[in-house]
Specification:
The protein is an alpha/beta fold. 45% of the residues lie in helices and 16% in strands. The protein contains eight helices and nine strands. The strands form two sheets. Strands 3-2-1-4-5-6-9 form a seven-stranded parallel β-sheet, with helices on both faces. Strands 7-8 form a two-stranded parallel sheet. α1 crosses α8. It is globular and about 55 Å long. The protein starts with 8 loop residues before the first strand and ends in a 10-residue tail after the last strand. The mean pLDDT is 94.
Length: 264
């Protein structure tokens, strides 16, 4: 299937590692020129070089802070100046898992506000900055990366992912008439470069093998294996394409079926 993405331009926030980097790689493989951004320059430059060499596309590293409106504006302006346009926004910048993960008694207000400012208001800032460019060309794709903590209880920071569901549908309704779709992907447990060391550390604490830890984690979803970050990239790339023009305002579980609930 030709996804008709060659020559498009994407911005991927939080694109220097993990899911963001995997998304940038898959978009570039389909012919997209990509700007990846995060707060730290060195890992950005390493990731940009790696993805560009693997795909042959232009991959530009840009330092940006999505908690600051002027920084987001500069990111979008610099993207248009360097690549001529912006067609796709992937909102991914956040603290993995959230900052407030324990009991209410231990929860800190400033950390919860930081989570919300980065992942909810940060996504809003980026969407607001790219929307005029997409409206002018009457075509655009915004894909938000959430998390399944927005669909289950237990982690207070999960409220940020629930809020993104509302933001996604609201933006989809407002921007749809301009040829812009807005969708949300909820990853679950996902294999990234952080996974190996994390499982090894847990295995050492429990006195078991890393393989045993991974096997235990894999049993938590329907497909009985850990989803790879590349697979999140596949889903994003399809939603970014012209073939997905009829899909907007929806939240997609890309966890391998880790929640035993019927969604209608």
């Amino acid at each position: 299937m030709d996804l008709e993405l060659t020559g498009k331009v994407a911005i991927v926030t939080g694109g220097s590692k993990g899911i963001g980097k995997a998304i940038a790689h898959e978009l570039a493989r389909e012919g997209v020129d990509v700007v990846i951004c995060s707060r730290s320059r060195e890992p950005l430059e390493v990731a940009a070089k790696e993805v560009a060499q693997a795909t042959g596309r232009r991959v530009l590293p840009m330092v940006a802070d999505t908690t600051d409106w002027s920084s987001v504006e500069q990111l979008v302006q610099s993207t248009v100046a360097a690549l001529g346009r912006v067609d796709i926004l992937v909102n991914n910048a956040s603290t993995p898992g959230g900052l407030v993960r324990g009991a209410l008694a231990d929860a800190k207000e400033d950390e919860l506000l930081d989570d919300i400012n980065t992942k909810v208001v940060g996504y809003f800032r980026c969407a607001k900055a790219v929307a005029p460019h997409m409206q002018q060309q009457q075509w655009g794709r915004i894909i938000n990366i959430g998390g399944l903590s927005g669909r289950r209880t237990g982690v207070i920071s999960g409220l940020r992912n629930a809020a993104i569901v509302h933001l996604t549908k609201t933006l989809a309704d407002q921007l749809g008439a301009h040829g812009i779709t807005v969708n949300l992907i909820h990853p679950g447990t996902t294999r990234t470069e952080r996974s190996g060391p994390m499982y090894a550390e847990q295995a050492q604490r429990e006195g078991v093998s890393s393989e045993a830890i991974e096997h235990r984690v894999a049993q938590r979803n329907a497909i009985q294996r850990i989803v790879d970050a590349q697979e999140i990239g596949y889903a994003v790339t399809f939603l970014a394409s012209s073939k997905a023009g009829a899909i907007t305002g929806v939240a997609i579980d890309a966890s391998g079926g880790s929640i035993p609930v019927v969604f209608q």
